[in-house]
């Protein structure tokens, strides 16, 4: 499908390679044109811990995701990113904004960006159905949205069904890697829990289609909000399904 424009905003360093490269590959395979943006137009790099060494073998990207990342990292769009802090930058021309997550503390550059928050507040007006704008977010990418506040000091997703990385997942990763990585995993989760209660006004509920609370992480699982063209996932294992569902939603809305 030609004519669909996607933007993937990124921090300079630290995003998860699976949550970035698998959606990129899926979008381009669907015929979408994908662009990248960093704060000042710096070429981004994903978290090396997820790409190499013992951390890759234990918790990191699969070989398929690594290969996808290597290909993506050589593309013109990736090596010539836009600058989201530029006066000429706007999200208005994009059909999809996709927000990858990541555990490395560098991702806070995107999560905490007031400039990106302002762009998202404006863009979100077109995401409400039957609008033609779409937003996807994985893992800590959801925090970019939850930190984006309306004039009423509520997150733009305060009335959305949303997924995010469960604390039990990140807690398990923290304790299994603490000997080597220190607090690499835990800090963003602690902040995320405080954020969800402060901004969303409620604890996040992660559900299966049956309505039961889901504690395991073996299955792919994403949530599409009923009111907005917004789809979210928990972790790298959801990346393929998340990207597929976004493509389906875009095609559905384009055909209508």
Brief sketch in words of this structure:
It comes from Botrytis hyacinthi. 40% of the residues lie in helices and 11% in strands. The protein is an alpha/beta fold and 256 residues long.
Structure, described:
With 256 residues, this protein is an alpha/beta fold. The protein has one domain: Class I glutamine amidotransferase (GATase) domain (Rossmann fold). It is built from 10 helices and 7 strands. It has helices at 17-29, 53-59, 63-73, 76-79, 108-111, 114-124, 141-146, 167-181, 186-200, 239-255, and strands spanning 5-9, 33-38, 82-83, 96-99, 134-138, 222-224, 230-233. Strands 3-2-1-4-5-7-6 form a 7-stranded mixed sheet. Strand 1 (5-9), helix 1 (17-29) and strand 2 form a beta-alpha-beta unit. Helix 1 crosses helix 3, helix 1 (17-29) runs parallel beside helix 10 and helix 8 (167-181) runs antiparallel to helix 9. It is globular, with a radius of gyration of 17 Å. It starts with a strand and ends with a helix. Mean pLDDT is 84; it is low at 188-216. This is DJ-1/PfpI domain-containing protein. Pfam families: ThiJ_like (PF17124).
Keywords:
single chain; 256 residues; alpha/beta; Rossmann fold; 10 helices; 7 strands; 40% helix; globular
* Count of the domains: 1
Q: Please give the radius of gyration in angstroms.
A: 17 Å
Q: Helix content range of the residues, please?
A: 40-55%
The pLDDT mean sits at 84
Unreliable spans: 188-216
**Through-space gap between termini:** 14 Å
Structural class: alpha/beta
């Amino acid at each position: 499908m030609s004519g669909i424009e996607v933007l993937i905003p990124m921090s300079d360093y630290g995003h998860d390679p699976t949550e970035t490269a698998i959606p990129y590959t899926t979008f381009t395979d669907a015929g979408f044109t994908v662009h990248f943006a960093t704060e000042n137009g710096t070429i981004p790099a994903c978290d090396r811990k997820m790409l190499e060494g013992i951390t890759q073998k234990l918790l990191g990207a699969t070989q398929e995701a690594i290969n996808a990342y290597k290909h993506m990292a050589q593309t013109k769009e990736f090596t010539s990113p836009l600058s989201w802090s530029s006066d000429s930058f706007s999200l208005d021309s994009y059909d999809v904004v996709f927000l990858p997550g990541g555990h490395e503390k560098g991702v806070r550059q995107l999560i905490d960006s007031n400039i990106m928050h302002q762009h998202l507040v404006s863009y979100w007006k077109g995401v409400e159905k039957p609008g033609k704008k779409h937003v996807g977010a994985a893992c800590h990418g959801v925090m970019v949205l939850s930190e984006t506040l309306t004039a009423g000091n509520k997150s733009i997703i305060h009335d959305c069904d949303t997924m995010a990385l469960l604390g039990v997942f990140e807690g398990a990763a923290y304790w299994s890697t603490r000997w080597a990585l220190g607090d690499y995993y835990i800090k963003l989760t602690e902040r995320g829990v405080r954020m969800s209660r402060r901004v969303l006004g409620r604890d996040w509920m992660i559900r299966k289609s049956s309505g039961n609370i889901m504690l395991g992480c073996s299955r792919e699982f994403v949530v599409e909000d009923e009111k907005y063209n917004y789809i979210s996932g928990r972790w790298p294992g959801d990346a393929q399904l998340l990207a597929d569902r976004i493509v389906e939603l875009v095609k559905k809305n384009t055909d209508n």
